[in-house]
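Summary for the steering committee. The consortium agreed at its last meeting that each partner would contribute one worked example illustrating the joint modelling workflow. Our contribution is presented below. We chose a case with several input lines so that the handling of multiple components could be demonstrated. No manual editing was applied between input and output; the record is shown as generated.
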Amino acid sequence: MDALSGQAVGIVGLGLIGGSLGLDLQAAGLTVRALVHRKSTAERARERGLAQHIDTDPGVLEGCGLIVLALPLDRLLDPPAALLAALPTDAVITDVGSVKQPVLERWQPLHRRFVASHPMAGTAEAGVEAGIRGLFAGRPWVATPTACTDPIALAAVQELAGLVGAQWLTCQAPAHDQAVALISHMPVLVSAALLEAANLGGRAAGADALVRQLASSGFADTSRIGGGNPELGTLMARCNREAVRGALHRYRQQLEQLEALVDQQQWPELQGRLEQCQAIRSEFL
Amino acid sequence: MDALSGQAVGIVGLGLIGGSLGLDLQAAGLTVRALVHRKSTAERARERGLAQHIDTDPGVLEGCGLIVLALPLDRLLDPPAALLAALPTDAVITDVGSVKQPVLERWQPLHRRFVASHPMAGTAEAGVEAGIRGLFAGRPWVATPTACTDPIALAAVQELAGLVGAQWLTCQAPAHDQAVALISHMPVLVSAALLEAANLGGRAAGADALVRQLASSGFADTSRIGGGNPELGTLMARCNREAVRGALHRYRQQLEQLEALVDQQQWPELQGRLEQCQAIRSEFL
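What follows is the complete predicted structure of the assembly.
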C-alpha cells in the first residue's frame, strides 16, 4: 500500500517547513490538507495557496494517509488533545523537529505509525510568509527509526522526502541529536558569544563605532547564526540540552587549546592546527 | 605637491592586495612599478599585467612618489636591507598590514614619510594569481597616523585609497589593533575550534560520516574563516598577540555565560541574550 497515492497529505503548521512542503507537494500533484492555529494564518495561507484545504479545525485532517507535524519543537512535544484526537489511527505520522530523541519518547507511545524525521533545510525566514518552492531539493532528510517503527510507514515518509527532492538518510536518534548539536545547535551559541564579545570588547576599548565600521564579510559569516531566530536557538538548546552541553564542553576544550598555543607563542603548532582545520572543513562541505 | 601625479606608484609584493592594487591603479591611469621576490612571480605578474614594470631588483622602485609595502606581516616587520636601501627618501611609504602598532614601531623610525594603513579587503585567494579588479571598492581603508606622521604623506595615501574606491578612515593604532582582534583575528580561532569540535565530537559519538552529511550552510558560514589561510591566521595571532588574547578572554567569558544559562535551564534569559545578539548583528552589517 502506498500512503501517498489516492489519499491526501496532511500538514500541521504552515510555517517555513510546513508551507514549503505544501507548495512542493501540490506541485507534485498531491492533495494537501492543512491545520493551522490562527484564523488569520489560515486566511493568509489560503491566499498564498500553501494547501488546497486549510482550516483551524483539526477535522481538516480527516482522511489523510500521511500527516506531517510541522510544529515548533515546544508545541510538538506538548501536543493539544484535539490534535491527537484528530489524527487517523491508520495514517502515517511524521514530524520535522530538529531534535529526535525527545520527539520519539513523546510520540512513539501516542501513535503506532509515528516516524521521527528531520528535513535539514531552512532560510532566515519564519511564519506563514516564509514557505517557498524547492526548499528541500538536495538537502538531507533524516529519519531516526527504532525497533518499533512500522517499516511501511517509514517507506511512506521516504517517498515524501523523495517527492520534494531531498536526500534520504536514516540513523539512530541519539547519533542524530549529537550530530546536530555539534554542527547546528552549539554553533548558534559559539556565534552568539562572538557578537557579544565584539560588542562589549569594542565598548571597553572605546571603539564602539570602529568595530562596527571595520567588521567585514568574515565577521558577517561567523556571526550569522548567532544573530538568527532567538526562539529557534533557545528551543534547540532546551530540547537538545544534554547533547548541546556535551558539544559546548568539547568546543571549549578545543578553544582553550588554541588559546594556550597563542599564550605560549607556539606558532608552528598553531599553524599546524589551522592547516588541519582547513582540511577538515573541506570534508564538511 | 601631489604624490600621485607625475610620479609612478611602487608596490612591493604582488599577492592578493598588491596585485589588486596594481590592476586598479593602472586602470586609473597611473604608472605602477612593482618589486617581487621571485623571478617566477615576476614572469607570471607580467603575464597578468599587474604592473607596467616588474622586477626582482629593488632598483625598480627608483623614482616612485608613493610606495605601498604589500608584504606579509612577518616580512613587513623584518624588511630586507636591500629594500630599505631602495626606498627613495622623499617617497611616501605605506603598508597594508592587518596589525598597526608593531608596524608603526618598526617603520616610523625607518622612514620619515611612513604612513601606517590597512585596506580591509580580501578574498579566500592568495599569491600572484589572486589579484583582481575592484577589490577595494566600498571597503574601509584605515590609516593610523601618529603625532609624527607627515600630513602631506597621509593625504597622498588617502588619495590612493580614494582612487581604488575605498572608504577612508583614520584611528589610533591601538584602537585599530583591538578592533581587528575582535572582529577578525580572534574569530579565526573561534571558528577553527568549531571545526575541531565537530570533527572530534563526531568521532567520539561514532558519527564521523553523519556530522559531515548533516552540516549545512550554517556550519559552512560559521566555519569559513577557521578553515581559511593557515599562515595568515597564525600571523594575525602572532603579530597582534596581546589584543587577540584580550579578545579571546572576552569571548570565553561570554560563551561561559551562555553555557551557564543552558546548564541552569534559564530559557527566557537565553532567549533574551539571543534577541540582543540579533540586534547587535544588524549594527555590524
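Chain A touches chain B through 97 residues (CB under 8 Å). The beta strands of chain A are 8-12, 32-35, 53-55, 64-69, 92-95, 114-115, 117-119, 140-143, 167-170.
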